[in-house]
Design goal:
By secondary structure, the protein is an all-alpha fold. It is built from seven helices and no strands.
C-alpha cells in the first residue's frame, strides 16, 4: 500500500461504480486493523503518527467509496474527467426545465401527502439516474457523460433535502 494509491487500489477493489457494500465494509475493517495506531504503540511516537496518517487515509477513502456520488466523482477523475460541480453547472435544457417543474411542484404542494408523493417521485428518478450512472461508468466507460449525470444527481440530492425540510415543516414529528 502507498499513501498515494487511489481509493480503489488502496482497498484492493476494482475501479467500478457497482461495489459490494459488504466487501467494502470488510476491507475497511481489515485495513483499519492493519494501520490502527495502537498496533504501533511499542514502536514510538513517530510510528504512531504514521499509523494515524494511514488510519485517516483509509477512513477518507472509505467515505468516498461508500457514497455513490463520491465514488462516481472519483471514478470520473481517475478516467481524466473532473466533475467540477462548483464551476461547471451546465445541464441539458430538458433537465433544466424538469428542475423548474419539480421546484414549482414543491412550491405548490400544500399537503403532507403531496410532498410525500413528490419525494417518492424523486426517489424513483434518483434510482433511474443511479442505474444509468453505473451503466455509463462500468459498461460504457463514458466518464464525460457520467460527470454530467453526477452533477444532475447532486442537484437532485439538494432538492431531496429541500423536500425533507418541507416534510419536517409539515410534520415536525419526522
Amino acid at each position: 500500500m502507498q499513501l498515494g494509491d487511489d481509493d480503489f487500489t488502496l482497498f484492493g477493489l476494482p475501479a467500478r461504480q457497482a461495489l459490494d457494500r459488504a466487501e467494502l465494509d470488510a476491507r475497511r475493517r481489515e485495513l483499519q486493523a492493519q494501520v490502527h495506531p495502537d498496533r504501533f504503540a511499542h514502536e514510538g511516537a513517530a510510528a504512531q503518527r504514521v499509523a494515524m496518517q494511514w488510519a485517516v487515509r483509509v477512513n477518507e477513502a472509505y467515505t468516498r467509496l461508500k457514497d455513490p456520488l463520491s465514488r462516481a466523482t472519483t471514478l470520473c477523475a481517475l478516467r481524466g474527467v473532473a466533475v467540477d460541480a462548483e464551476r461547471n453547472t451546465a445541464m441539458p435544457a430538458a433537465f433544466l426545465m424538469q428542475q423548474m417543474a419539480w421546484r414549482e411542484a414543491l412550491e405548490e404542494a400544500g399537503s403532507l401527502a403531496a410532498v410525500e408523493a413528490l419525494d417518492a417521485e424523486m426517489a424513483a428518478e434518483e434510482g433511474k439516474m443511479q442505474a444509468e450512472l453505473t451503466r455509463l461508468l462500468d459498461e460504457e466507460n463514458n466518464a464525460t457523460a457520467a460527470a454530467a449525470l453526477v452533477r444532475a444527481l447532486m442537484f437532485l440530492a439538494r432538492f431531496r433535502q429541500d423536500i425533507e425540510n418541507r416534510l419536517e415543516t409539515l410534520d415536525p414529528t419526522r
